[in-house]
Amino acid sequence: MSVALTSTAVPTSTRSDKVRVMVVDDSVVIRGMISRWIGAEPDMEVVASLRTGLDAVNQLERINPDVAVLDIEMPDLDGISALPQLLAKKRDLVVIMASTLTRRNAEISLKALSLGASDYIPKPESTREATAAETFRHDLIQKIRHLGAKVRRSPVHTTASPPLAPGHDRPRPSIPAAAHTAPAQATRRSFGLLPPKVLMIGSSTGGPQALMTLVAEIGPVIDRFPVLITQHMPPTFTTILAEHLARTSKRPAHEGIDGESIRPGQIYLAPGGRHMRVARHGVDATIALDDGPPVNFCKPAVDPMFTSAIDVWQGSIMSVILTGMGSDGMRGGKDIVAAGGSVIAQDEATSVVWGMPGAAVNAGICAAVLPLNQIAPKLVRVFAGDRS
């Protein structure tokens, strides 16, 4: 995810309210830099700065952090090996995997998400380059803030839990009912009257896991209609994600190519670092990649994809906004609804972060707000003609 810098107001905190962060990286330079950044924030604190994954596993219960920033490549015990051991000791620990932008590390980061990591962040190749370092700082602080705040609100916030038996999924911390009672009462719209001709999906934090769940269950939709996805993700990572989507859905999936025709039976993923829009070329709908500035502090962003599709499909658009920080997708969703299309949002309880879907719900543009496991069945019914 590419993020433009912006000032973010944060609440003042007492020491007991601060998000407790454990930094685990074999580079003393990286540990020191991240620790200084976190120490400058009023709502978080570094409670440990460790060199190896083994140190993190051995000291976790004593330190009791809310968030661990975990490097992938370390001596003694690397990040991907330490991850399940950390989560076995503290099931609600937020783990943010940190790695350089290589294909191998992108593969490992996505595997870490499937093993229970909450998010990932690409480290710049050189922290001496000011823009790269500042973007890394901004992204990391926002991830710690949003993910750490959620786990501290969770009623299952705990120090330790027994290891899981093989084959069992680790449950995510639940959200108190009061946390989503008010948004659940937000205005619901009817589904659009026109039959949808395309499915468009936007996601960010927690998105890769949610997308895998979704595409595995919407085969009947993919077979008859094109599916376009924007996931906030950097280059290389989107290449790997497209490959994973293809394996999971058992349908063709690839990064969008500028100028290519959009066809049913295909999944098109916005490539990292470029916006993916839709254009009309004769009778064909085509992919139009855009190297313009970030939108909603993101590149690729969901809003450009959503809004551009209206000129091609008018009101025959079904859009889905999945888990993610910020409000990307809300403005484009408004445009889709105004044109006669529909928006479905993931509910708060199953979202890693309820920023993007929550913004859509609170804007009153959603025809449905559903748990993740109910979105695919609903889409299959809608695309089959049921718009109730």
Task: Throw out a few tags for this protein.
14 strands, disordered N terminus, 2 domains, methyltransferase activity, Rossmann fold, 388 residues, Protein-glutamate methylesterase/protein-glutamine glutaminase, 38% helix, transferase, EC 3.5.1.44, five-stranded parallel β-sheet, seven-stranded parallel β-sheet, hydrolase, alpha/beta, 13 helices
Number of helices: 13
The arrangement of helices and strands along the chain is EHEHEHEHEHHEHHEHEEEEHEHEHEH
CATH level 1 class label of the largest domain = Alpha Beta
Oligomeric status of the shown chains?
single chain
CATH topology (fold) name of the largest domain: Rossmann fold
Strand content: 15-25%
Structural class: alpha/beta
Family: Belongs to the CheB family.
Enzyme class: hydrolase
Subcellular location: Cytoplasm
Modified residues (4-aspartylphosphate): 71
Please give a structural write-up.
- Its main location: cytoplasm.
- The active site is at residues 204, 232, 328.
- This protein has 388 residues and is of the alpha/beta class.
- Helix content is 38%, strand content 19%.
- It folds into 2 domains: 15-153, Response regulator (Rossmann fold, 3-Layer(aba) Sandwich); 182-383, 3-Layer(aba) Sandwich (Rossmann fold).
- The chain has a 7-stranded parallel β-sheet with strand order 8-9-7-6-12-13-14, sandwiched between helices.
- Strand 3 (67-71), helix 3 (79-89) and strand 4 form a beta-alpha-beta unit.
- Helix 2 packs parallel to helix 3, helix 10 packs parallel to helix 11 (330-339) and helix 11 packs across helix 12 (356-362).
- The longest helix has 24 residues, at 130-153.
- The chain is globular, with a radius of gyration of 21 Å.
- The two termini are 36 Å apart.
